[in-house]
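Two proteins were folded this term; both appear here.
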Amino acid sequence: MNTKRSFTTITAIFAVLLSFGQAPEGFKYQAVVRDAGNVILNHQAIGMQLTIQQGSIGGPSVYTETFHTTSNAYGIVNIEIGTGTTTDDLSTIDWANGPYFIETAIDVTGGTSYTTMGASQFMSVPYALYAKMAENVSNDLVDDADADPTNELQAVSFSNDTLYLSNGGSVYLGNYAIDTQIDSAGIATLGFVAGPHTIDTDTDDQTLSLAGADLTITDGNTVDLSSLQDGTGTDDQNISGSGLSGTILTIGIEGGAPETVDLSSLKGEGGTDDQNISGSGLSGTNLTIGIEDGTSETVDLSSLQDGTGTDDQNISGSGLSGTNLTIGIEDGTSETIDLSSLQDGTGTDDQNISGSGLSGTNLTIGIEDGTSETVDLSSLQDGTGTDDQNISGSGLSGTNLTIGIEDGTSET
């Protein structure tokens, strides 16, 4: 037999048990058993544990009772609270000191591995039990140290949701809810499906999801959004047909309408936004920087100089000792540099011109312990093997003497 079951609805219907006119010692409890598909589980063995809590849901337990029962052909279980297995005494509950709540736990396999399904507040049933206290008083069954059966009698009245006794004392009944359905929070935590007579704690929240161009809502339909894009699976568009004409900027987009923006307000009268540096100058150590059609700024440069109005410093304390060159500066720290690597070991860096000569128009220049260089001088002469030039175009005009040279510029 498949033992996977769900106790999906617990509609508690309470009724006082009357016994030949006597005060009630219990009340009935009825519930419906369904599976996760909301199908009634008839003729199903059920284990139940009922706990009465004082003050609030989860408050102190004043009475606990267990039952082993079977659902009928309609999936209904009927039990009588006060007739199950318990070590507590239902008659000791002080119903005037409420409110009271009943917590339901079940095992749909008929065992004792109970799962808490929720709790619900009592309404009027327990107050029939509370009335038994008045019956005991009227029959003088209360141990009050006298034998008078009438001296404790009081009149009971009800006004504005409050029950009053004529000699004092009252109970406010407005806090006791009419709805006796068990809270479905416990059912929801087990993943059960809510059925008839349960408090619906679900919401109408739905989730949207997008797969490709299909937009889907949970428990609903799907909308094809492909018509909103370019068929490639994206809605990308290229900038196209844009340009600048004068101060008019045209911005175009693929498959759309271009927009035109007038940029004339961003430029000056000359067609540009250029600005000239204007009105700048140095006064003492104050540097003023000005800009065309703008506000000038003045910067104090006194911290950059020596107090004389300049930042000049003199070379001071410098000298050469052997191959060590000391460089000193006014009001500063001197530096010493070893120059020995620059000379030939004799104490100097003198080198002789060696291996030089002229061959035709090629001049070879040689240096001691170095590499010679050859220079072509042909561009300096007239092609005849010399660089001779003739005086040409010279003359005297008044006191102005003009001297001219071949292939050159005259001077006056």
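Next, the second protein.
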Amino acid sequence: MPDPVLLGPPPPSRPARIVSLVPSLTEALAALGLDDETVGLTRFCVHPDDWKARKAIVGGTKNVRVDRVLELRPDLVVANREENERAPVEALAAAGVSVWLSDIATVADTLDALRDLGRVTGREKEGERLAAEVAGAFDALDRPA
């Protein structure tokens, strides 16, 4: 996998307003302890259970409402090359929003992305811990019963 890329300006070292356009990465943001910082998500981001009721909804993964994202004044948007359409991601970056764009195809890519998401959100230690937990869970699947 190519490393996740940042589009638009660099984010602050500890983003305070994050919008997630990817359900699985919304769960990762929660695992990194970024509840207060996550202000928006898609209608498909259903975990953690209570987030959808407490966060702004910015459309779906394929039909992101750029206007709604911009109204939230995010300093970081979390997106994925396969999950999200190119046009809204590029529009957000062109509007001056920092977009962290992942491209995940393998377990190793997942672990790298979790570490990098921790780094870009100022939660590097938590990202390393989460990647280790996920790696351990996958390792357990490979062991014979």
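The longest strand covers residues 76-80. The radius of gyration is 15 Å. These notes refer to the second protein only.
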